[in-house]
């Protein structure tokens, strides 16, 4: 896990990489590389190297990333990104019989949105989303809403659905749970979502002056899906 011995997470990782047929391409925003408590390294440690490939950057052209371009044009490739045009992953998994490739964007919501809309390659695969009401266990980092998930959690749920194996989610989430437990034991605080803070009058930061951001906060308070 590459962490100090005192907070080593290796005992919580699977002894052997999980056997999965689905290959993940993690498109990571450069800002995520510098985060100490990022979840993608834990995800990669749970999977075989050829089933979890990480590409770091903001712009991905066909000339610079020919392998990625080929992947995006493959009819079995999916991209996990919610929206009006996204199909629920459960429906796709029922109809899928061949091994799939799934692209997941790793970054804040604004960073992920920027990557998705400014790279035409990512609008070639079939767009899917997770239909789940589970709350994030990544409690040491603030999420926009109560049901927003970290990259590791998204991958865990998606792989469980695609592989039709419920134990995958439990195995991948185990090191995340241990990470949060260690951090809380060493002084970290539980981070409630912005949605929770706003609804309970606990949001202590200045409200944004930008009208679009202010409108998003109003939607969170009023239970309107963004």
Could you characterize the architecture of this molecule?
The protein has about 230 residues and is α/β, with parallel strands linked by helices. Helices cover about 35% and strands about 10% of the residues. It is built from 9 helices and 6 strands. It is globular.
Map the helices and strands.
Elements: E1 23-28, H1 30-33, H2 40-46, E2 52-56, H3 66-73, E3 77-80, E4 87-88, H4 89-95, E5 101-106, H5 109-117, E6 126-129, H6 151-163, H7 167-185, H8 194-199, H9 211-221
Parallel strand pairs: 1-2, 1-5, 3-5, 3-6, 4-6
Beta-strand percentage?
5-15%
- Write down the overall geometry: globular
Radius of gyration: 18 Å
Taking the alpha carbons of the first and last residues, their distance comes to 35 Å
Strands, total number: 6
What is the mean predicted local confidence, pLDDT?
80
Helix tally?
9
Percent of residues in helices:
25-40%
* Adjacency order of strands in the biggest sheet: 2-1-5-3-6-4
Sequence stretches where pLDDT stays below 50 over 5 or more residues: 192-198
**Main sheet specs:** 6 strands, parallel
Report the order of strands and helices: EHHEHEEHEHEHHHH
Global structural class: alpha/beta
In a few lines, what is going on in this structure?
The chain has 226 residues and is α/β, with parallel strands linked by helices. The protein has helices at 30-33, 40-46, 66-73, 89-95, 109-117, 151-163, 167-185, 194-199, 211-221, and strands at 23-28, 52-56, 77-80, 87-88, 101-106, 126-129.
């Amino acid at each position: 896990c590459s962490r100090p011995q005192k907070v080593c997470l290796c005992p919580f990782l699977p002894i052997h990489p999980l056997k999965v047929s689905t290959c993940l391409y993690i498109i990571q925003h450069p800002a995520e590389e510098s985060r100490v408590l990022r979840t993608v390294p834990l995800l990669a440690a749970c999977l075989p190297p050829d089933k979890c490939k990480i590409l770091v950057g903001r712009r991905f052209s066909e000339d610079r990333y020919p392998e990625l371009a080929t992947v995006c044009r493959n009819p079995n490739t999916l991209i996990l990104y919610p929206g009006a045009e996204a199909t629920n992953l459960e429906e796709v998994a029922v109809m899928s019989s061949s091994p799939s490739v799934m692209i997941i964007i790793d970054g804040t919501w604004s960073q992920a949105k920027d990557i998705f809309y400014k790279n035409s390659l990512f609008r070639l695969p079939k767009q899917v989303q997770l239909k789940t009401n589970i709350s994030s266990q990544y409690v040491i980092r603030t999420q926009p809403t109560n049901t927003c998930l970290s990259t590791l959690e998204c991958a865990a749920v998606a792989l469980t659905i695609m592989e039709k194996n419920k134990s995958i989610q439990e195995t991948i989430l185990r090191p995340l749970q241990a990470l949060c437990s260690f951090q809380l034991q060493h002084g970290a605080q539980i981070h409630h979502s912005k949605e929770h803070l706003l609804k309970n009058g606990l949001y202590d930061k200045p409200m944004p002056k930008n009208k679009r951001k202010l409108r998003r906060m109003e939607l969170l308070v009023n239970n309107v899906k963004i």
